[in-house]
Amino acid sequence: MKVKILGVMKGKNKAGKSFCQYHFQKPFTDYENENNDCLGVTTGQEFSYTDYNLKPGDECDFQYEPGFQGRATLSEVEVLKQAVEESVKAAGGK
User: Fold this and answer.
1) pTM score
2) Which end of the chain has fewer CB atoms < 10 Å from its terminal CB, N or C?
3) Per-residue pLDDT of the chain (94 residues; tens, 9 = 90+)
4) Would you tell me how many other CB atoms lie within 10 Å of the CB of residue 53?
5) How far is CA 44 from CA 4, 16, 65, in A?
6) Is 47 helix (H, G, I), strand (E, B) or coil?
């Protein structure tokens, strides 16, 4: 699923294990578009114990595999386009 990262929250659970919560925007699905009047994009979030070192603005492909009770679990993230860093933008670069 191709997404654009909007925000990343990193923390630790009660047991002290590190986690990441990725917040993103993505296009509406074909089903949503065919059965509704959709404008713009939709948002979502994905939880992972793996820190993929993503930053707001990164464009990624989230890849899933079957997890607990058959639910899709994030298994890999491919960064398709990295975000332009603010310091580079401020200096007039791309």
Assistant:
1) 0.82
2) C
3) 999 999 999 999 999 999 999 999 999 999 999 999 999 999 999 999 999 999 999 999 999 999 888 889 999 999 999 998 754 555 565 5
4) 10
5) 10, 25, 18
6) strand
